[in-house]
Amino acid sequence: MEIREVFAQNLRAARQAKGMSQEELAHRADIDRTYISSLERSVYNASIDVVERLAMALGTEAAELLKRSQETSTNQVD
Amino acid sequence: MEIREVFAQNLRAARQAKGMSQEELAHRADIDRTYISSLERSVYNASIDVVERLAMALGTEAAELLKRSQETSTNQVD
């Protein structure tokens, strides 16, 4: 699975785990909501600064948002 | 410590642990050597695609290259 897809899935899961809307995450991270929506659909190739700002707004680490889970890494084998 | 600095330190450490020159890493990852040199000096704001390509060329994961170690996270407190 491509890193953009891994990031998209992790970002959405972390946001939803916090019960946060895209609107609220956008406000906290000072990033446009439509850009967050695009990131969650793997549309853009985010920079590490953006990954960091989103991670901080979600109370997690940038590395966590790029981490392949069992599910995302096994897909890579297909 | 800023994420660019964390990435710069992790990238250099992973490359040197493999005994790889910037030249060889550039060749393997199909990225310009001078860009790698700049990344190792925190000059640029790398994209996650670039982080992924460098991680694969180094036989590691993108998340590992953004991971804060004890040393890089304690600096954050200063």
UniProtKB/TrEMBL annotation, chains A, B:
Q: Name one GO molecular function term.
A: DNA binding
Q: Tell me where on the tree of life, at the top rank, the source sits.
A: Bacteria
What InterPro entries does its record include? Cro/C1-type_HTH, Lambda_DNA-bd_dom_sf, TransReg_Diox_bact_type
HTH cro/C1-type domain location, by residue?
11-65
Q: Keywords on this record?
A: DNA-binding, Transcription, Transcription regulation
Any one cellular component term from GO for this entry? Answer: cytosol
Which residues are the signal sequence here?
A: none
Enumerate the CDD domains for this protein. HTH_XRE
Q: Is the keyword Glycoprotein assigned to this protein?
A: no
Transcription regulation as a keyword of this entry, yes or no, is yes
For this protein, the record's PANTHER family field holds: HTH-TYPE TRANSCRIPTIONAL REGULATOR, HTH-TYPE TRANSCRIPTIONAL REGULATOR SUTR
The protein's name: Helix-turn-helix
Protein's organism: Neomesorhizobium albiziae
